[in-house]
């Protein structure tokens, strides 16, 4: 109640200041206008006196009756809230079941620690168990070393592997000669790790050496085959040149004289060999329909491949003979020039020329095999072999073409095509009224010389 006059005085001062502020613009010019500062100072003067007149408030204690009434009201509110909750059907939440306690795992059994000195084995493996301590070095020759425990010295394996498990501890160096180091995560090595020439590398080195030796042995196995080919070629040349020297020499001369047409003829024969064989096979099948045609079909199936083989084998000999004749003529010309004499005009014989040319062609294969056995010369031997096979194929085709041309022009095929020579006609029979031809008089025999005495004197 004592604060009410103070509040009323403050409200009155605030209203007066508001009126003065609103009336300031209409004040006469001779009077001093009301400013905000003057208004605040005036309000402070009005409020200061009642404010300084205030006294300190003193709080009186509450009576027990008032406190009891307050507690009763609180109890009634709680009871009312409980009734409302029960009417709404809300049940109090059940307390959560206590968690099942976790049973701790039993501790691992204690590891019996053992200590030992240096360990060395030859031809056997070494295993350092977990908890074992080696007061010294571990050396294995020809075996593996597996470490689970503690090695205070060095671990050395010669010709074996070293396995460091996660519980391994090596205070010294780990040396692996001729093997591999297998180090698991968690292992501890206090010194250096030294590895050299593992087993895999040794196997690779041995494999390379063995493969090279095997390749050289395989290269040497080609020498007997090349030698056999040389002998067979010389035998074929001697056989064809010995049995038919005239035809072989004539075909070789045709090749040297008509190389272009011979090449064309040989190429056509080579291209038509497969289609013609197929045609002969088809015709032979058709001939087998009749009983009479079966022998003809069999003869065609066996004879035509033989004819093709004869053509190209003889062509090989003819090509070799042409090459040999060229080589022998060049050699004779060089020898004649060296000795200052005239070169021989006669061509070399068919046998000699065939053996020389075929020997050069087949001998190149033997030279190739021998050169491939020599280090750093294998490439040269391969080059010689490739050139020799190319020359053999070309000369065989040329020789076959020259042989066909010679046979169709002057040989067996020409006689079959032209037929035999026409025989003289028989004398016609005598008809009456036609004089028969008079036989020419036979020539008289010359007189024989006298046996003895003087000429012109009769005995």
TrEMBL record:
Residues 101-111, 434-452 have a biased composition (Pro residues). Keywords: Membrane, Transmembrane, Transmembrane helix. The chain crosses the membrane at residues 226-246, 267-300, 306-328, 349-367, 379-404. It comes from the Bacteria. Residues 68-116, 427-459 are annotated as: Disordered. Residues 84-100 have a biased composition (Low complexity). Residues 70-83 have a biased composition (Basic and acidic residues). Coiled coil: none annotated. This is Polymer-forming cytoskeletal protein. It comes from Eiseniibacteriota bacterium.
